[in-house]
Amino acid sequence: MNVVLFGPPGSGKGTQAQFVVERYCIPQISTGDMLRAAVKAKSPLGNMAKAIMDAGGLVSDEIVLGLVKDRVSQDDCASGFVLDGFPRTISQADSLITLLDGFSKKIDFVISLDVDSQELISRLSGRRTCPVCGKGYHVIYNKPEREGVCDSCGALLVQRDDDTENTVINRLNVYEMQTAALKSYFKDLGILHCVSGSGSISDIQTQISSIIDIGGIGDHS
Ligand code: AP5
Ligand code: MG
């Protein structure tokens, strides 16, 4: 089963991907996480991507597609995966469909998380992430048991470099200009399921599992 979690920055893609991974035992493919790992490793790809990510722009389709191609062809993706943050342009979506076609696979569900922009800004400014295991938190909405410390591995939590005010505003604009149009693209393919991303994290998990288990609940608009 192949799932795409779709939505603007801060809509909860990463948070809900963690749930899908645990419930359905399929790996998460987050292009943002892969790019941040490349930046941290100071690889040539990471050095190229850093300035673009810090400014809130999109890394080239060619680079991200290369990362996704390598990842989906690995053995642990054979029975499915959950994509988080990819595709983000029509061209990436076209390439994904062609790529999956080559493995006789398809996208089964696109789950779109809809959240208004004021809430997105407050979520991103309060987000904290574990630099070791990648688990995500929020200083108000999703607190760790001990302030500033990861529940899973005990590492000190950090704020992402692109969660500064100006970069957040740019990321939201880039989403509207280059990514939002994918909703009608997926709707035309009959695979789009919209859920409100504004409820509690557990309510959204329930809606997502209903969509996947029953294959259809959720606003099909
Ligand atoms: P990426 O890492 O994908 O970032 P993003 O899309 O901007 O999304 P975020 O990770 O910021 O938000 P999220 O939806 O995962 O929300 P989260 O669950 O953390 O990409 C980063 C950059 O990499 C891009 O800007 C671009 O430069 C590059 N890139 C990546 N993919 C690319 C691609 N395909 N093409 C080109 N470039 C690419 O939640 C946010 C916060 O809210 C957390 O604190 C969380 O605890 C909290 N929260 C979550 N759900 C709820 C809830 N229901 N109620 C209250 N709080 C909640
Ligand atoms: Mg994320």
Strand content: 5-15%
CATH topology of the domain at 2-26 and 79-115 and 166-214: Rossmann fold
What is the share of helical residues? 40-55%
Distinct helical segment count: 9
- Which of globular, elongated, flat, extended, rod-shaped describes the shape? globular
Which radius of gyration do the C-alpha atoms yield?
17 Å
Can you summarize the main beta sheet?
A: 5 strands, parallel
Read across the widest sheet, the strand sequence of neighbours is: 2-3-1-4-7
CATH class of the domain at 2-26 and 79-115 and 166-214: Alpha Beta
Descriptive report:
This protein has a domain of 111 residues: P-loop containing nucleotide triphosphate hydrolases (Rossmann fold, 3-Layer(aba) Sandwich). Helices cover 47% and strands 13% of the residues. It contains 9 helices and 7 strands, in the order E-H-E-H-H-H-E-H-E-H-E-E-H-H-E-H. Strand 5 and strand 6 form a beta hairpin. The radius of gyration is 17 Å and the shape is globular. Bound molecules: BIS(adenosine)-5'-pentaphosphate and magnesium ion. The site of BIS(adenosine)-5'-pentaphosphate has 36 residues, from helix 1, helix 2, helix 3, helix 6 and strand 6.
Quick overview of this protein structure:
The chain has 221 residues and is α/β, with parallel strands linked by helices. 47% of the residues lie in helices and 13% in strands.
List keywords for this structure.
221 residues; alpha/beta; Rossmann fold; five-stranded parallel β-sheet; two-stranded antiparallel ribbon; 7 strands; 47% helix; 13% strand; binds BIS(adenosine)-5'-pentaphosphate
